[in-house]
Design brief:
This protein has seven helices and eight strands. It has helices at about 5-10, 15-20, 25-65, 145-195, 200-210, 210-225, 230-250, and strands at about 70, 75-80, 85-90, 90-95, 110-115, 120-125, 125-130, 140. It is an alpha+beta fold. It is elongated, with a radius of gyration of 24 Å.
Length: about 260
């Protein structure tokens, strides 16, 4: 059975997952890398789209439409006394030196940049990252400085996007290996509960394939930009349930009379 057939079978068959406990560790590790690659596809797509369209849009807005501003001493300064919102080409820029806007108020924005009173927020695919202005130190930064930076980034985006994608992939892969190791520890308790004879190495292999169902589900949810409540807890519960069902497919050891 090739790795793609394993992916398909692991989606619905605990009995098949139980059989994978006998295969080599190398193939299981390769499967984890494949699963990690599959899971980051929506994130990489939204990130690359946001960077590609965002740089050009932000540069155009800052140059032609946005009120001049400066950032120094960890704070945003501009002549406007009310928050400004500019929506262009599916990208939104917020400018608010008053402190009226918060991260909660701009939640739900698809792609955008929020220049708030004491921090700025980057938004890609409705996921946001916040950075304080204090990271600039004592240096004064103006909108012209940012326009020059955007001009530089525009020429580097063919490098930036692959580098960020690789970083996301490596981080996701590492997280999956940690999760599998922890899940296999849960498996030790589950195998005692079900009275099966199986060691940790075999449980680790089964745990890797038990992640398939929750990974596919959350990847689909991410691709359609749907937030799942208590997603982390649900991910663990589904993975543990699939692992438990797989353990139960292993024949019980025969009693010696």
């Amino acid at each position: 059975m090739n790795i793609f057939q394993q992916f398909y079978k692991s989606f619905y068959s605990p009995k098949t997952i139980a059989l994978f406990r006998f295969q080599g560790i190398g193939k299981t590790i390769l499967y984890v890398f494949l699963l990690s690659l599959f899971s980051i596809l929506p994130s990489v797509y939204f990130l690359s789209t946001a960077i590609s369209t965002g740089i050009d849009t932000v540069r155009s807005i800052m140059k032609d439409e946005l009120t001049p501003f400066s950032i120094h001493n960890g704070q945003l300064f501009t002549k406007t006394s009310v928050p400004i919102t500019i929506d262009k080409e599916n990208f939104t820029i917020f400018l608010d030196p008053t402190g009226t806007l918060t991260e909660e108020k701009i939640a739900g924005t698809d792609n955008g940049l929020a220049l708030l009173k004491n921090k700025f927020v980057l938004i890609a695919g409705e996921k946001s990252e916040t950075y304080p202005y204090s990271m600039f130190g004592d240096k004064k930064v103006s909108n012209q400085d940012l326009i020059q930076l955007l001009n530089t980034l525009n020429g580097l985006k063919v490098i930036i996007i692959p580098v960020l994608s690789i970083f996301i992939y490596l981080f996701t892969s590492a997280s999956n290996f940690v999760q599998i190791s922890i899940l296999a520890l849960f498996g030790l308790g589950l195998k005692n509960l079900s009275g099966r004879k199986i060691n940790y190495r075999q449980l680790w292999r089964m745990a890797a394939y038990s992640l398939t169902l929750p990974t596919v589900f959350f990847t689909i949810m991410a691709s359609i930009k749907t937030t799942v409540p208590a997603s982390s807890l649900l991910n663990w519960l589904v993975a543990i349930l699939v692992l438990y069902l797989s353990i139960n497919e292993i024949p019980k050891p025969k009693k010696v009379e």
